[in-house]
Design brief:
Elements lengths: L2 E7 L2 E8 L1 E6 L2 E5 L6 E5 L2 E7 L2 E7 L2 E6 L2 E6 L2 E3 L5 H15 L7 H23 L1
Parallel strand pairs: 1-9
Antiparallel strand pairs: 1-2, 3-4, 3-6, 5-8, 6-7, 7-10, 8-9
Helix pairs in contact: 1-2
Length: about 130
């Protein structure tokens, strides 16, 4: 028995495959989902999603969002998500530096703009940590 994992961002589908299990970061801690899991709706926090499939584990970096588990389907809706193999370390470092520089002018920003910059920095940091794991 397996699960269908779908990860979707505003930019489109990032992942859509049959898997054995998934571990995801939630606001309540890490949650592991295996076939037969009870229905679940939870908030995702920025972090590392570990996907087990055919004896291997793939990792994806994800920003905040939501996850739903119903039957044999797990759907993750996130602002951003990227597979470890697609992470460009130079691009991530540049995006993080731009966001940190913009935070220096925080006095002129709305609370929403500040939250977006903080999310950008968190997501960049997660990508960097994920690349350093290997």
């Amino acid at each position: 028995m397996s699960l269908q994992l779908e990860i979707v961002t505003p930019h489109g589908k990032v992942y859509d495959e049959r898997i054995d299990s998934v571990v995801m970061p939630t606001t309540s801690g890490e949650v592991g989902i295996m076939p037969g899991h009870i229905p679940l709706l939870t908030e995702i926090q920025p972090g590392d999603i570990a996907v087990s499939k055919s004896g291997t584990v793939d990792h994806l970096a994800v920003s905040k969002g939501f996850a739903q588990c119903i039957g044999d389907k797990v759907s993750i809706l996130a602002e951003h998500a990227i597979s470890e193999s697609d992470i460009d370390e130079n691009e991530v470092e540049a995006a993080k530096a731009r966001a940190q520089e913009a935070l220096k002018n925080a006095k002129e920003m709305s609370a929403e703009e500040l939250a977006q910059l903080e999310t950008t920095i968190q997501y960049a940091t997660i990508q960097q940590l994920l690349k350093k794991k290997k």
